[in-house]
Design goal:
25% helix; 28% strand; Dna Ligase, domain 1; 3 domains; globular; D-amino Acid Aminotransferase, Chain A, domain 1; alpha+beta
Amino acid sequence: MDASCIPPFERQFFEGREDFTRIGAGAVGGKASGLWLIREKILSRLDLAAHPGFEVNVPRLCVICTDVFEAFLSHNDLWPLIRENPPDEDLARAFLRAELPPGLAGDLRALISKVHTPLAVRSSSLLEDALEHPFAGVYCTKMIPNNQFDIDIRARKLGEAVKLVWASTFFAEARSIMQAARVEWERERMAVILQEIVGEKRSERFYPTISGVGRSFNAYPTGHAVPEDGVVSLALGLGKTIVDGGRCYSYCPAYPRTPLPYKSLGDLMDATQNRFFAVHMGPLSDYDPLKETEYLREHSLDTAESDETLRFLASSYDSDSDRLYPGLFGAGPRVVNFSPVLTTNQVPLNDLIRDLMRLSREALAADVEIEFALNLDPKQGLPARLGFLQVRPMAASTEEVAVDAEELAHPAAVVASPKVLGNGTRHDIQDIIYVKPKSFDPARTVEVATEIGRLNQALLDEKRPYLLIGFGRFGTADPWLGIPTAWGQLSGAAAIVEATLHNMRPELSQGSHFFHNLVGFGVYYLAVEPQSGGRVDFDWLDSQPAAAETAFLRHLRLPRPLELRVDRRRGRGVIRHD
């Protein structure tokens, strides 16, 4: 988009109430363009009269354009160091030591003198959130409390956060993903968004009541739902829980009262959120400007209950009746299933979410993913404020592919799944990396992720696509839910298979950045749950000679390519050897 559409930041006239401004005259990047689209094309069409009690807006922000980023690199002669490809920490330290461009430091100080709310310093690169190169969650976002008494300290903290986001443009994960996407890393440029965080201060914590991600297309509908009904993931506190693949609550917005298909209350209680993220507003024990999560802390549900933020989010378990009841009753365990807002009309949040997804889909003429944060009145629920934080298009293939149910039982099927993401075929995969079932240890998944990253880089260098097979959820921030890979550690995979174990059966987090990158990069995904008719032929895999083997992985290089077919319409996929 043309940055001139956005009013320039003018420090002498800035009052802190301006809702969308820019510093610089270059590009504003993908994320900022999406926020401008929300403001101009989506929220302008929202009928707020149909949603009484809700305030809906894009939280106030200022964009630092890409020309300021380029001036920073040139002014500090950073290009020679960047081309050396140093470790992330060394690069970040060099950026933090560097001087801000003349004028920017004064603008940041002027801004911070009028803005006293916690801020999210967000990346907005040229490639970010683009349909053809969806680098979701790759670059840094740093949240800062912005509550120090001394304005010079607050300005310095803001400047440090901006520099960290700039440095992340050239971190190892970003370079790896650009390599997989066949993008020259030197083409990338970074704008930075300075945006107020939606939420409220509670003791030494600042966080929204609810964060959410909605998708207009659901790859894994259950019950009466169809893919076009979409899916919404909700979490207590900051949205980091969702986008990092943590425990959250996902439901179909067309059927918000339909219980999720868990076998028992115990399974539901094990799968739902038990901790939440907040911005720490108190003194820091450690000063660490290189750490993206320097000011983030995790807290228990007991803390949320004392903050009075669980009232409309949780149900209570009654052991006498072995049932859940919406709201907070008795001393039983709390289950964050959002029943009070989804099953009653006291806070009709779902109607608003459906409207926002519909308007977003119409504005982009494609299926979309949206992110939002909501602050509820702790006593009545309403009035409530919803901050619309992001909109992205979802890629979709129109190739006609048919996978019949009988094919899932074919003896040549290495992988068969009745639960898939993607649509299409591939006949060029000869490499397989799989986690050895007998060696897999849920307590050592971080080591597994590291080994995958090494093999991934080797295959990227050889330009060889591969099939990746593992257990639990890839890309999760919780190592007990699966293998906590960063996207750059498996960016060369053409297809990913998640198999379940008896002690590791998490649902795929459809609101995660990992999920968005699967869709955007056209990586096929197959979930294998034996109870649902899926299977991985580990006996066949084990019988093949290994090109390489580690403590937890085997790498196979087959003499002939596999045949991969994924049928989005029927929700089936099969990968066969000859």
